[in-house]
Amino acid sequence: MPEYPDIVVYVEALRERIVGSRLSRLRIVHPFLLRTAEPRPEALAGKRVSGVERIGKQIVIALEEETFMVIHLMIAGRLRWFPESGKGPAKIPGKLGLAAFDFETGSLVFTEAGTKRRASLHLVAGREGLSPFDRGGLEVIGSTDEAFSAALARENHTLKRSLTDPRLFSGIGNSYSDEILHRARLSPFKLSSAMSAEETSRLRAAAEAVLVEWSERLRRELSGKFPEKVTAFRPEMAVHGRYGQPCPVCGTPVQRVEYAENECDYCPVCQTEGRLLADRALSRLLKGDWPRTIQELEALKAKNSTLGDPTDSPPPRAGP
Ligand SMILES: [Zn+2]
Fold this sequence. Notes:
Strand content: 15-25%
Structural class: alpha+beta
Largest sheet: 4 strands, antiparallel
Bound molecules: zinc ion
Oligomer: single chain
Mean pLDDT: 90
């Protein structure tokens, strides 16, 4: 799911292209996309864009007279930009296309890969109508240790779950939570109630640094182009999506835990004092042989190397 850095570069790219421009038409291919009955899409035609904002992981296009289009990309939703060419509005791709927003300056095409239709569009009249989209999570950038600590203390969960809870923290999902926890040298399964003041401060600083650095990196890579390659997996990430590859800090193979419908990549040396986090599916597979440390895992791998070690490939997903 696109997270803070991805959403920020979308917002910036859109601001450059559509602020001040009129929406000539909103074309919706898949009716399920639109989750609101009022205002009608036709009522938005002719309105000028007054701004582009972010609420959590959502992109908000503000039109004049306090009318808003709230775009939630969910996991597989993406945006494409087709500058006005004089040849009429951009074609909406048949398989992936959900909608197109035709502005005077070009068409913004909303797509979603896969068959699960999760991405959404809400049309909202009046700024007060935006409040339900704000889940209340803290904006980490520019936050204080006190505010961060208060957000963390609101519920006792694992750090992984707390960071990705939009009611506690804004804009952080599966990818950047892995990166933040690695930067902070904290276990994803550590409980928020067990955090010392020093650890909380370290986590806040890591979260801010990771989000700022990644936003800057994405902005630099784009250098003015519209974001086309929005992905949760990037080779420059430290641990996320890098199962089995060396940790950039200590060289230990990155480990993965899968649970419920989420997964988590971490470095056992940097984050969990060498301990491996129990993965339900892998525990079952290995029966009582669950290695407790990275050294035991390496020894087990060496012992099983002739048998085809199940830990060589990513662990199977946990059952339903
Ligand atoms: Zn490491």
